[in-house]
Amino acid sequence: MDKIPILRMGPFLLVTIQIDLYDRLAMNLESDLVQKVHQTGARGVLIDISAVTIVDSFMGRILGNIASMTRVLDAETVVVGMQPAVAITLIELGLSLKGVHTALDVERGMALLHTKLDLSTEMADDDADDTE
Amino acid sequence: MDKIPILRMGPFLLVTIQIDLYDRLAMNLESDLVQKVHQTGARGVLIDISAVTIVDSFMGRILGNIASMTRVLDAETVVVGMQPAVAITLIELGLSLKGVHTALDVERGMALLHTKLDLSTEMADDDADDTE
């Protein structure tokens, strides 16, 4: 199986990464996700990496890429379920996952997305020229 | 990775099957799921098999087992995202997935679970001696 399924849950997309992200699989995931965000008009992407035990700079870069790509399509990306060892490795590798939101589990990730989306709507109403 | 992550989403648990369910993996999934239902008091289990392209009688039996096990813990199981080819194979193998609910995708599966849970609560209120 060389495709990671992308599940639609209301305004969000959910991806569970269970296998090592090799080059082709990661590229497929990037393009599939961006297309799916475009098709569905999703406002948020949740990437569950609770099954990922080994992480390298490639994986870090892929997560960063996905976050940047979805952001230009007006969707926020939240990485959830990171194992403590993975967090340690990422920081030791000097990868701070800039631009990627994180949360402890899917539920908190969804709550974070809801807050972000509400906030960004309010901010747009209150102060339209506020830029990031 | 010899564990399939189980994600908690409110009163439901979500499992995405992305790799072939070999014996040990399937047994682990069964016991993990049953334990998680017990721990969390989940009322429904959603199993996404949209990435599964090949199915055999073992897989059919595992899905049936999971549904039976969770039912005795008062949780309903819905299998979602089945590929048309998988549906054809299952029926041709004579496996009708008795006791397993199915839905087209996760969203419809969740809607089905919500309906089932509401209905079963109402039925319990209306007519406590109604048995399946």
CATH architecture of chain A: 2-Layer Sandwich
Topology pattern of chain A, helix = H, strand = E: EEHEHEHEH
Q: Which fold name is given in CATH as the topology of chain A? A: Transcription Regulator spoIIAA
Tell me the Rg of chain A in angstroms: 15 Å
* Terminal-residue CA separation of chain A: 39 Å
Query: What is the CATH top level name of chain A?
Result: Alpha Beta
Description:
Chain A has helices at 23-40, 57-72, 84-92, 106-126; strands spanning 6-9, 12-16, 44-48, 76-80, 101-103. With 132 residues, chain A is an alpha/beta fold. Chain A has a five-stranded mixed sheet, sandwiched between helices. In chain A, strand 2 (12-16), helix 1 (23-40) and strand 3 (44-48) form a beta-alpha-beta unit. Mean pLDDT of chain A is 86; it is low at 124-132. Chains A and B meet through strand 1 and helix 4 of A and strand 1 and helix 4 of B. Chains A, B: This is STAS domain-containing protein.
Q: What tags apply to this protein structure?
A:
Transcription Regulator spoIIAA; homodimer; alpha/beta; 132 residues; 4 helices
Q: Short summary of the structure?
A:
The structure is a homodimer of 132-residue chains. The first copy, chain A, has 132 residues and is an alpha/beta fold. The first copy, chain A, has one domain (6-126): STAS domain (Transcription Regulator spoIIAA), CATH 3.30.750.24.
Blueprint (SSEs and pairs):
The structure is a homodimer.
Chain A: E1 6-9, E2 12-16, H1 23-40, E3 44-48, H2 57-72, E4 76-80, H3 84-92, E5 101-103, H4 106-126
Parallel strand pairs in A: 2-3, 3-4, 4-5
Antiparallel strand pairs in A: 1-2
Helix pairs in contact in A: 1-2
